[in-house]
Amino acid sequence: MMELVTILKRKNISVYRCSKESNVPYTTLLDIVKGKTKIEKCTAETVYRLAKVLNIAMEELLEEHLEGRKSMLYRSDFETFKNNICHLVKDRGDMDFIIDTLKEDKIRLYWDRKWYPESFYLLAMIDYLSRENGLPLCQDYEDIRSCSLPEPLYPRDINLAAKLDSSLDLRKQSIEEAIPEFKRFNIVESRIRDVY
């Protein structure tokens, strides 16, 4: 649960700078920071612009509001989550993505919520990017690394293709082509760089 003012402080961005870079009017942003305007009452465009400037997901800006209403806690479908993570890697770059993810401790946040696929996917991404960039693994998640999903989690398109034509052995092929860091957690993933 993080308020906008906390995010701005953590990222060392002033209200004025955030306003300029996001094209959100200064008075609007100031009202949000001071609590006069609730972020969940803002337009999707305003939330999107702020999230983009702050390099965070829109859900993170709305998280406090959503946390306060447990029955409405937002959890996107796993394909959307994966797509968002891949876009963040592309937009931020490997190193900034690794640093921001570890600093925000999202892996543990998802784990504590029992959102295991998301936690595994994010940890696999960090481990993969660390290997690709010659970095040592972060040792904070050894307890999570010792676990995995009970069944393989295939991409939606592989599941759909298998249902349409059972003679195609796409699942077997997709497991063979999976990135090892993802396969370790029983997540079949091979195309993290192919986002547009």
Characterize the overall form: elongated
Overall mean pLDDT stands at: 85
- Cα separation of the termini: 30 Å
Low-confidence stretches: 68-73
List the secondary-structure elements in sequence, H or E.
HHHHHHHHHHHHH
- Count of DSSP-assigned helices: 13
Rg, alpha carbons: 19 Å
Strand content: under 5%
Portion of residues within helices: 55-70%
Structural class: mainly alpha
Please provide the count of β strands. 0
Reported for the largest beta sheet, the result is: none
3D structure, described in words:
About 3% of the residues have low confidence. Helix 7 packs across helix 9. The chain is elongated. 19% of the residues are buried. 61% of the residues lie in helices and 0% in strands. By secondary structure, the protein is mostly helical. The chain is built from 13 helices and no strands.
Topology:
Blueprint: H1 4-10, H2 15-22, H3 26-34, H4 44-54, H5 58-67, H6 78-92, H7 94-104, H8 106-112, H9 116-132, H10 142-145, H11 156-164, H12 170-177, H13 180-183
Helix pairs in contact: 2-3, 2-4, 4-5, 6-7, 6-9, 7-9, 8-9
List keywords for this structure.
single chain, 196 residues, mainly alpha, 13 helices, 61% helix, elongated
